[in-house]
Amino acid sequence: MARSKLFMSLLVIASVCTLAATSFAKPKPCKFNGDYSFMFWSTDANIAGLGYFTVNLTAPACRSGLVAPGGILDCNRPEHGPDGEAPYEFEEFIDSGTVGIESDGEGHMSITGSTNDGICGTGYDTLVLDISVVQNGKTVLFNSNGEPDQAGNDEDMMITGRADKCFSGNISGCYDVRFWNTDLPNPDPEAEDPGEPFVGDCTVCVNGAGLVTGGSCACNLGFGNTETLSNIVGGFYAPSLDPCQSSTNFMEFYLASQPLCGVLDEVVLDYVVAKGGQQVYGACDYFNGFGCAFEGYLQ
Questions:
Q1: Which tens digits make up the pLDDT trace of 27-84?
Q2: Residues 88, 290: contact at Cβ < 8 Å?
Q3: String of DSSP letters for 142-165
């Protein structure tokens, strides 16, 4: 009888301890929470951009939440400024937004800003995205949603892109960079076709102290299936000292031998850093007079 009472007492104590541990255990943080840098491009228009957003999902379910105020969405549209002037850049400060995610990581996100021009000059201050959260929340793939009365329904805003956890710190080494777009201005002013698609790749070397030290670029463009080859002879960049607040870091470098794609001797890129410095990606700055998107990997 004494052994039975002792067993029951130990069982009660164990149950109480288990209940206490369960009651006071902190919920695990949501994987898709925090600050993300992102890049996007249009599949049919001379448009690309980048920026950052902050996601706050509600634990423990982690299925829904908010986009926090304070992010930025920068959009380069070289031939789409107010009153038709070119080039032009639209900057949208993110005021709010919502997020909803299914158990498989698929979901949606809305981003709302407050400028008069709207997101990328569309006149709409809200952009709705279809998203896919991958790599345990480290990366988000997205594309525009066709829901009416929002920027993603604009004919030029059929966009796709990706976001990664923000990274701060120096970058150093050589990056293999590929770039592309649908429309490069024709260098021949008398040409009937005003623009052609182009693709290319560069090796861009940086020294970790804000300088571009060398590299090379090749560009394949539609004007007679032409290829240009250029040497990078120097330049500079803004180090990513803050994970997200300086979302649109820029890089500028100078070319010799041949202009890039037969057009530029000087190239300006807006970029963000991902994967702990292993990747860079972004968009051609509107200063160039044509748009592009690019992504690069550390050699």
A1: 677 989 999 999 999 887 778 999 999 999 998 899 999 999 989 999 988 766 555 5
A2: no
A3: EEE---SSSGGGSTT--EEEEEEE
40, 238, 171, 299 alpha-carbon torsion, rounded to 10°: 60
User: What is the rounded average pLDDT of the residues 149-160?
Assistant: 91
At 190, list the tokens: 């008398």
Residue 167 token pair = 């990274």
Q: How many CB atoms lie within 10 A of CB 17?
A: 10
Where exactly are the structural domains of the chain? 34-165, 173-298
pLDDT at 12 over 50: no
173-298 has which CATH code? 2.40.128
Percent of the chain with pLDDT over 70: 79
Q: Which residues contact 25 (CB under 8 A, 6 or more apart)?
A: none
Model confidence at 250, pLDDT cuts 50, 70, 90, reads confident
Task: Give SS3 for 287.
Answer: helix
- The CATH code that applies to domain 34-165 is 2.40.128.120
Q: Is 288 helix (H, G, I), strand (E, B) or coil?
A: helix
pTM of the model: 0.83
Calculated CA dihedral for residues 285, 288, 292, 295, nearest 10 degrees: -60
Residue type, 216: S
Q: Which tokens sit at 176? A: 């293999």
Q: Matching CATH topology for 34-165 and 173-298?
A: yes
* Planar angle of CA 59, 93, 88, nearest 5 degrees: 140
